[in-house]
């Protein structure tokens, strides 16, 4: 590789931001002053290229300190990592949270997605923009779902500097959002994670039982509340025993695909190629989803323990926690928990004195829904654009860095704890049919008590909405988020199981339940969903790249039309949607038409 | 190469193609198997010298048991597979994908696509006059080649050829995302400030004419480009001792562009700046 760099030089601050991550450069080959030794040896080559995965953290380092990524900063980072500048530029422009053009040091992201839109995000945006006009030093950006749906509308302020400051305002008023943006350092602490759990304190909760009960910063408190008994049990029964328990429990993935977790772990564990990796997908970006955030904020050690067990089962010694960039508090809590666990011998070379080595590295996403797709997530960690790969080969065979990888989301992993402490059969007795165990649901929209609910599989949609206190005039419920589907108010007896929702012609997806009353203009909502997919498509394959655009255009045309006036465009939407579902590379393109299709077919959105 | 290279002896797999039993060596892609069986499956982004990126999704076929259609160019044949290449479902997807492409970029210089549009009864106009298009001015910033992203289908072939698959210059990549994704050099600057070494291997693999010789671009603009009046003569490059094959495209006794045969086992169609662009001395008659 013959790298070419332009003339742009980094500023001292940009250089310092990169060096704080990578250490000072040693040689002129990577940006230091030339020394005598440089005439005789060349640093770089393979050793440097193997650090390619530090590209995303490097971009974060610059973006956090400066607020944007200049040519000089990008070139310096590339020199340090021997990454071609064209590729790094391609990566930097892929993520919504980065800018390669100058912008104010403070950026206020105002969520305009489904729950926030229903709660008045557009008025909030207009109000904030009126107050924070030119000269205020704050850039206002419209953002996709920030994962704060239970406190909609939401805004996130990020002020670049050393250290970077963030402040969340939710529920946001113009006043509070402006305050958060003008002094994020002194913004009031967010309300406790437990406030997102209306059932908090209920002793029967298996997954959320500790949220609001334990101190999320205290490892001792976690242990006092039953923490680390599951890991002890795992060591007692061995990796094969763990996989057997998880298989017998019937645990299936909670990210939406519902793949049997035991089978995934077994397939990873049995791969001859090494090393094996464990990846925890904490990039929940599905509009309406916030359960992983609440678990990480309220009970961070449970995820550390669960990841350790999963890694032990699949034979991995390194785990990556890929956490979405829009979750500053979850990031702080998880960083603290991982650090404490490491300091206390619960991570590291000798976990619990059992001679098993495992450590967790946290990787921060930078605003890209597609990175929740498992193979796109690998590409993102590896320092490439977050584009999905085609399968086969599957991740259990060739995953992160081309090695066997088990990837699970946060909710799936924390389910492993009650399986090991209570036994597989007790776990399998909960739920119904092929859906065993408890399930987390993210309820938001037109309800009195939005938040995360833990219910055994099999409860009906109506029962869940009763708990959340649905308001009068219910028009529609979106199940499974933007990639899911709408159901009608007369379908509330749908059982919330994978097979039950499938039988009803819809999907459980990631467990989103978004209620909309009859004041919400449905065509505008559908347009917002289409906009979301058009924004979030990675652009790799034609059906998704152009199809999401054509879908949005057609919905724009019929936003005020019904019946015969909309018929031709609906036919067009159906044809494009069918091709997107059939021919896209990954789940994003394949599901981008689901919600709109269900709104047309089940709700009669344009009749 | 559309023919599967055999290499070391490989096991023959048996599977069904449109109801007919066929046998193919292990590792054969469905596209190669289709072509060996004399079936025409259209494809835009597949390149004979590059690893398939399967981005265009024109070559999708139906595999029994698969939830979605699969790209024939990259999916390997497996024993017992049941593959159907010409069903209503595959034809529908191909038609829509061709419509999506033709409505968003200029395919006037893409070979074969006009025939496919007709064959699949694609009507790119039906998205209306306001359908978003990639309408960009051609970037003419050097004397050797022109980038016209209004014709680009983002097949990634130039990225792969410039990157780790051939040239190792890594001068181009994809930037942005979604409909705004574009091919660009670092910082989206001019070619002359980039890592480009002007090997022109990206032009060699470009399937749509988004990358073209400046000579071809100028002649097209002047209306003098006439492929039917051109002859191709393959010869050996005279610059160094490697012996790369050059195909000189000559119109009216002038070399108008230089390509290289892809089936050459040494170069696979790749050249350097001298072989690709250094032909003026041949026709310098002063």
Description:
Chain A contains 25 helices and 15 strands. Chain A is of the alpha/beta class. The mean pLDDT of chain A is about 95. In chain A, the strands form 4 sheets. Chain A has a 5-stranded mixed beta sheet with strand order 12-11-15-13-14, with helices on both faces. Chain A has a 4-stranded mixed beta sheet with strand order 2-1-3-4, covered by helices on one side. Chain A has a 4-stranded parallel beta sheet with strand order 7-6-5-8, sandwiched between helices. Chain A has helices at about 10-20, 45-50, 55-65, 70-80, 85-90, 115-120, 120-130, 175-180, 220-225, 230-250, 260-270, 290-300, 300-315, 330-345, 375-380, 410-415, 415-420, 425-430, 460-470, 500-505, 520-535, 540-555, 565-585, 585-590, 595-600; strands spanning about 105-110, 140-145, 155-160, 165-170, 275-280, 315-325, 360-365, 405-410, 430, 435, 440-445, 450-455, 475-480, 485, 510-515. With about 290 residues, chain B is α+β, with helices and mostly antiparallel strands. Chain B has helices at about 30-35, 90-105, 115-120, 155-160, 200-205, 215-220, 275, and strands at about 10-15, 20-25, 60-65, 70, 80-85, 145, 170-175, 180-185, 210-215, 230-235, 245-250, 255-260. In chain B, the strands form 4 sheets. Chain B has a 5-stranded mixed beta sheet with strand order 2-1-5-3-4, with helices on both faces. A 3-stranded antiparallel beta sheet of chain B has the order 10-11-12. A two-stranded antiparallel ribbon of chain B has the order 6-9. In chain B, strand 10 (about 230-235) and strand 11 (about 245-250) form a beta hairpin. The longest helix of chain B has 17 residues, at about 90-105. Chain B is globular, with a radius of gyration of 20 Å. Chains A and B meet through helix 4, helix 5, helix 21, helix 22 and helix 23 of A and helix 2 and strand 7 of B.
């Amino acid at each position: 590789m013959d790298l070419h760099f332009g003339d742009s030089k980094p500023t001292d601050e940009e250089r310092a931001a990169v060096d704080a991550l990578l250490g000072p450069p040693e040689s002129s080959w990577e940006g230091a002053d030339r020394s005598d030794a440089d005439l005789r040896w060349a640093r770089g080559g393979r050793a440097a290229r193997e650090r390619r995965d530090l590209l995303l953290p490097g971009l974060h380092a610059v973006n956090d300190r400066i607020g944007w990524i200049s040519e000089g900063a990008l070139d310096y980072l590339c020199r340090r990592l021997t990454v071609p500048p064209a590729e790094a530029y391609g990566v930097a422009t892929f993520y919504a949270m980065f800018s390669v053009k100058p912008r104010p040091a403070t950026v206020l992201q105002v969520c305009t997605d489904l729950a926030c839109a229903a709660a008045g995000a557009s008025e909030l945006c207009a109000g904030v923009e009126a107050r924070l006009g030119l000269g205020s030093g704050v850039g206002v950006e419209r953002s996709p779902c920030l994962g704060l749906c239970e406190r909609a509308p939401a805004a996130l302020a990020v002020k670049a500097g050393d250290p970077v400051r963030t402040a969340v305002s939710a529920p946001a008023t113009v006043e509070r959002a402006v305050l958060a943006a003008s002094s994020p350092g002194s913004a009031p602490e967010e309300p406790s994670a437990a406030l997102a759990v209306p059932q908090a304190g209920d002793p029967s909760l298996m997954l959320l039982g500790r949220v609001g009960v334990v101190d999320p910063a205290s490892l001792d408190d976690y242990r006092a509340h039953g923490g680390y008994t599951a890991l002890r049990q795992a060591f007692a029964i061995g990796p094969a025993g763990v996989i057997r328990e998880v298989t017998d429990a019937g645990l299936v993935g909670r990210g939406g695909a519902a793949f049997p977790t035991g089978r995934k772990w077994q397939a990873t564990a049995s791969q001859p190629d090494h090393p094996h990796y464990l990846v925890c997908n904490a990039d929940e970006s599905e509009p309406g989803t916030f359960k992983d955030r609440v678990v990480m904020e309220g009970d961070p050690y449970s995820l550390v323990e669960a990841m350790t067990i999963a890694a032990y089962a699949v034979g991995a010694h390194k785990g990556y926690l890929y956490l979405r960039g829009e979750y500053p508090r979850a990031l702080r809590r998880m960083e603290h928990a991982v650090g404490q666990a490491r300091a206390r011998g619960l991570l590291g070379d000798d976990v619990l004195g059992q001679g098993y080595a495992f450590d967790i590295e946290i990787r921060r996403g930078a605003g890209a829904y597609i990175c929740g797709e498992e193979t796109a997530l690998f590409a993102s960690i590896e320092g490439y654009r977050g584009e999905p790969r085609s399968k086969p080969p599957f991740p259990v065979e060739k995953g992160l860095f081309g090695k066997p990888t088990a990837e699970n989301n946060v909710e799936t992993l924390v389910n492993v704890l009650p399986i090991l402490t209570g036994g597989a059969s007790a776990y399998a007795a909960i739920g119904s049919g092929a859906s065993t165990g408890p399930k987390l649901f993210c309820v938001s929209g037109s309800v009195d008590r939005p938040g995360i609910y833990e219910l055994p599989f099999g409860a009906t949609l109506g029962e869940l909405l009763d708990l959340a206190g649905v308001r009068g005039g219910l028009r529609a419920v979106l199940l499974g988020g933007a990639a899911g589907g709408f159901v009608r108010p007369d379908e509330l007896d749908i059982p919330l199981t994978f097979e039950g929702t499938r039988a009803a012609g819809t999907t459980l997806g990631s467990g989103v339940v978004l209620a909309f009353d009859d004041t919400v203009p449905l065509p505008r909502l559908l347009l917002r969903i289409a906009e979301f997919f058009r924004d979030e498509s990675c652009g790799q394959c034609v059906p998704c790249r152009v199809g999401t655009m054509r879908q949005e255009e057609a919905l724009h045309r019929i936003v005020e039309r019904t019946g015969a006036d909309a018929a031709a465009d609906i036919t067009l939407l159906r044809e494009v949607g069918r091709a997107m579902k059939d021919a896209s590379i990954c789940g994003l393109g394949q599901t981008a038409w689901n919600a709109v299709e269900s709104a047309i077919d089940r709700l009669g959105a344009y009749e | 190469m559309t023919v599967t290279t055999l290499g070391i002896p490989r096991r023959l797999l048996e599977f069904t193609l449109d109801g007919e039993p066929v046998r193919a060596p292990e590792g054969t892609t469905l596209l190669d198997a289709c072509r060996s069986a004399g079936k025409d499956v259209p494809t835009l982004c597949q390149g004979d010298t590059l690893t398939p990126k399967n981005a265009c999704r024109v070559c999708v076929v139906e595999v029994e048991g698969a939830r979605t259609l699969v790209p024939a160019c990259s999916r390997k044949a497996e024993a017992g597979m049941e593959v159907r290449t010409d069903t209503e479902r595959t034809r529908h997807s191909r038609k829509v994908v061709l419509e999506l492409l033709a409505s968003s970029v200029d395919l006037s210089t893409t070979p074969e696509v006009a025939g496919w549009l007709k064959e699949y009864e694609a009507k790119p106009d039906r998205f209306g006059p306001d359908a978003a298009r990639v309408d960009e001015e051609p970037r003419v910033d050097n004397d050797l080649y022109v980038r016209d992203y209004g014709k680009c289908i983002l097949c990634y072939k130039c990225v792969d050829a410039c990157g780790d698959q051939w040239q190792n210059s890594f001068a181009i990549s994809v930037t942005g995302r979604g409909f705004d994704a574009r091919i660009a050099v670092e910082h989206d600057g001019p070619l002359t400030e980039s890592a480009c070494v002007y090997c022109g291997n990206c032009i060699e693999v470009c399937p749509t004419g988004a990358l073209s010789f400046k000579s071809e671009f100028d002649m097209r603009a002047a209306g003098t480009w006439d492929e039917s009046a051109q002859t191709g003569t393959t010869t050996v490059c005279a610059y160094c001792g490697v012996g790369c094959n050059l195909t000189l495209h000559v119109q009216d006794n002038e070399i108008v562009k230089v390509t290289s045969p892809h089936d050459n086992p040494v170069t696979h169609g790749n050249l350097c700046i001298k072989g690709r662009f250094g032909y003026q001395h041949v026709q310098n008659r002063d």
